[in-house]
């Protein structure tokens, strides 16, 4: 059993030319990492084929071909995943809405030999336009990793609440939105990590509702008894 693994976290530039430099660097790195488990994850800012795009997008055939070639030449394979098939949204609605699978985890064959049941979960985005990715199915460190990811999700909830503290009605809407997403995740995966997330989001929603009710009561009192 391996006691050491290598993890590379990357970000692919939006423009094609700088991404080519990244693909070259990744291929060069793969030549150095030849006998250890290797995980590559992040926002690649590229898709592999048209099935990873939902909505109207520009022609990216050259980008897709170069991305597939990089993965092949680096000796990497896609780690199996469950959850949302698209990991990025342009935050638009109607005909302008666009979803893409820009975030993923790739591994070498030595990683799969070490952890053949490993995979990851693509979680629905909350306040970010990108989906969190949760690594699962490993013999070591999985519980701690999932806990860290759960805390990152909760930070987004509390950050949004703090940002909108001056608008209590909007707080309620946001908190309800977070709660609905958390419940959907638990319904889909039936895992304790998402049950904990539901409980935390429910507490946030409860506090938001109480604050809004208090505000409405004070407003009504002032209208009945103006100064």
UniProtKB/TrEMBL annotation:
Gene3D superfamilies cross-referenced by the UniProt entry: Endonuclease/exonuclease/phosphatase
Pfam families xref list: Exo_endo_phos
Domain spans labelled Endonuclease/exonuclease/phosphatase: 34-130
GO MF annotations, alphabetized: catalytic activity
InterPro entries in the cross-refs: Endo/exonu/phosph_ase_sf, Endo/exonuclease/phosphatase
Domain of life from the UniProt record: Eukaryota
Protein's UniProt name: Endonuclease/exonuclease/phosphatase domain-containing protein
Naturally occurring in which organism (per UniProt): Sesamum angolense
């Amino acid at each position: 059993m391996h006691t050491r693994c290598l993890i590379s976290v990357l970000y692919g530039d939006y423009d094609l030319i700088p991404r080519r430099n990244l693909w070259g660097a990744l291929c060069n790195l793969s030549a150095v990492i030849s006998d250890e488990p290797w995980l590559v994850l992040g926002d690649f800012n590229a898709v592999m084929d048209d099935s990873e795009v939902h909505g109207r997008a520009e022609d990216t055939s050259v980008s897709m071909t170069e991305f597939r070639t990089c993965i092949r030449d680096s000796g990497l394979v896609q780690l199996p995943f469950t959850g949302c098939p698209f990991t990025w949204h342009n935050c638009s609605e109607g005909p302008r809405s666009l979803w893409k699978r820009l975030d993923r985890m790739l591994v070498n064959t030595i990683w799969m030999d070490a952890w053949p049941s490993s995979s990851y979960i693509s979680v629905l985005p909350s306040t970010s336009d990108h989906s969190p990715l949760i690594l699962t199915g490993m013999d070591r460190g999985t519980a701690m990793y999932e806990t860290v990811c759960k805390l990152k999700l909760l930070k987004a909830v509390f950050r949004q609440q703090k940002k909108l503290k001056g608008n209590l009605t909007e707080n309620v809407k946001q908190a309800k939105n977070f709660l609905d997403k958390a419940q959907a995740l638990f319904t889909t995966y039936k895992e304790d990590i998402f049950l904990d997330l539901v409980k935390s989001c429910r507490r946030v929603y409860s506090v938001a509702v109480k604050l809004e009710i208090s505000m409405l009561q004070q407003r009504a009192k002032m209208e009945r008894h103006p100064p």
